[in-house]
Every structure is written in C-alpha cells, then in structure tokens.
Automatic annotation (TrEMBL):
It comes from Stenotrophomonas tumulicola. GO terms for biological process: proteolysis. This is M14 family metallocarboxypeptidase. Keywords: Carboxypeptidase, Hydrolase, Protease. It comes from the Bacteria.
Length: 309
C-alpha cells in the first residue's frame, strides 16, 4: 500500500473514535477456531501440567478463557521461565511453537526449572488472524498496569506473584508480509497518521531489551535457530524494521517503555522472537520448529548462567 493510499476505515488524518472502531470490527471475520485448534491441545496437556485459567474475555457475548500451563511440581527454590505466544493473534507459529514445545520437550526440564507457558494470549485475534484485540488495541504496546488491553493486564496479574523467581521470558512472534499490507496501514489510519512504507525482512531475528541487553544470550538463541531456518540480514541501512542491527539477527527495543510483553517479568534474560512465515525458504512446520529451537536454547542458556534474583 503506497503512502498516498488510505485505509478503508475512517477519515485520513483523523484518529478513530467509537464509530470507526465499530466499522473496523465489522470487517473482521472469524477465520479459524480457538476452541478447535488450541483449546483441545491445552486440555490434553493438562494431564501433565497444571492448567491455569487466569481470566476470561467477553467480547459481545463471545467468551474466551485465558489459559496457561505451568509445572505441576512447581518448586519455589528453582528458577522459573515464562513462554508466551499469540500476543498478536495472527502470528501462528508463536501459538503452535509454544504448544509443540510443551508436547515434545518441556518434560526434559522437569526438576530443573519451573515453566509457565501462555500459548495464546490473544484468542480473539487468533480467530480473526489479526494483530489487535476486539477494541482495535494492540496488546503488545499495552503491557502496563491499568492498561486498556484485558489480555495484557490479565497476564501481568498472573505473572506478578512469580516475578522474583523469573530468570527468563521468551515471547514468540512473527513478522509477516501482512504487517506491511494490512496492520501498519491500519495503525496509521487508527491514529490519524500518514502511512510510511517499510521493508519486511526475510528471515528470523530477535529483539533484545535495550535497557538491559544480553548479547551472549541472544547469540546463543540465534545459533540454535540458524540450524533450523535462515536469519534475517540487515538492510542497506544496517537495520531490520527500522532499528539498528546490533549483532547477527538482533535488534533492540526498550521493552518496558514500549509496553511490550517481554518486559513484564523483569527477568535477566528476555527476548522476542520474530519468525518470517512468508519466506519462500520456510515452511509452516519450519517456523514452528524455529520457535521451539529458540525456547530450548533460551532455557538451556538461562539454566547455565542464571539464578533467580
């Protein structure tokens, strides 16, 4: 979509009000089912992990449980790790990668680290293959106490009593072609700003915390993922999505200041994965496998280098 084009909701240059949000919402169709794709796998895993319902969303009569799975043998003397997926509902491999990790690999960490996994933070967005929630709010810019996204505040409340144990948080995301064709134009329209075209990187990359960077940790994760899929190169400005590449496949954001999910624990080791599912060099299963490889590498590194604070 060129900079001169307008998103088909609202008036150019004017932020949306309730009428525009309702118009946007009317355009969103249910394209897949949380209760068919995700919920049965969570329920099956509840035989091995404690199933925790940490909230419920009620959007115009459509109810979605907010669910996490945690180690049944949770040990206060052990470090803990948080894995989150589906903060942006359309980023499929985050949801599927979190579930695949639980099904295939989480058992090997029993007795060494406590696990808390929220596979699908934004189930309404998952069903609509959308970035935002029902209220046209991006949960991943609103992880702050008292914020407007219920998905975000519920997760914060779940994690709050466990923060002292947390040594790791890995938040699973994707960067897709639809970011440029749909979601960034929608953001510009919603906020009454002009749309500025950008570039979508071809490959996997990570987002570190610029306020508390852990470069060796990020490179350990990159090295593991590189055995599964290719890593995004920097563009001709030395950037990925407008941010300077600080190391192979790594950029940095101020996580807490931006209200990003990966900033909610205060853990020593945090990262946001970004898989590129639209690449001709990657399959959906390869994207899921890349997320699993990232989780395992992050856990292994944290176990070797950290103790709870």
């Amino acid at each position: 979509m060129p900079a001169s084009a307008f998103y088909p909701v609202g008036t150019p240059g004017q932020p949306w009000g309730p009428a525009e949000r309702a118009q946007w919402r009317a355009r969103q169709q249910r394209l897949r089912r949380f209760d068919e794709d995700v919920l049965p796998r969570i329920e099956a895993l509840a035989e091995r992990f404690e199933r925790v319902q940490y909230g419920v969303l009620d959007y115009a009569g459509e109810r979605y449980p907010l669910l996490a799975l945690r180690s049944r043998d949770w040990n206060p003397s052990l470090p803990a790790a948080l894995v989150t997926g589906g903060v942006h509902g359309y980023e499929t491999s985050g949801v599927m990668g979190a579930l695949q990790f639980l099904e295939q690999h989480a058992g090997s960490y029993a007795g060494r680290i406590n696990l808390l996994v929220a596979p699908c933070v934004n189930p309404w967005g998952y069903e609509r293959i959308n970035r935002w929630n029902f209220d046209a709010i991006d949960p991943n810019r609103n992880f702050r106490a008292g914020g407007p996204a219920l998905e975000s505040t519920a997760l914060i409340a779940l994690v709050a009593p466990l923060k002292a144990q947390m040594v790791l948080h890995i938040d699973l995301h994707e960067t897709t072609d639809s970011d440029e064709s749909e979601f960034r134009p929608a953001l510009a329209a919603r906020d009454g700003q002009p749309f500025q075209p950008g570039l979508i990187p071809d490959g996997f990359y990570l987002v570190d915390d610029s306020d508390h960077p852990q470069p060796a940790f990020q490179q350990a994760v990159i090295a593991a993922v590189e055995r599964v899929t290719h890593i995004a190169p920097a563009d001709d400005k030395g950037e990925i999505i407008g941010s300077a590449v600080v190391a192979h496949g790594v950029i940095e954001y101020p996580l807490v200041a931006l209200g990003l999910c990966a900033g909610i624990t205060g853990a020593r080791f945090t990262t946001t994965t970004e898989v590129y599912p639209d690449s001709p060099r990657a399959t959906p299963q390869q994207c899921n496998d890349a997320q699993v490889a990232a989780i395992r590498a992050a856990l292994d590194y944290a176990l070797q280098h950290a103790q709870p604070s």
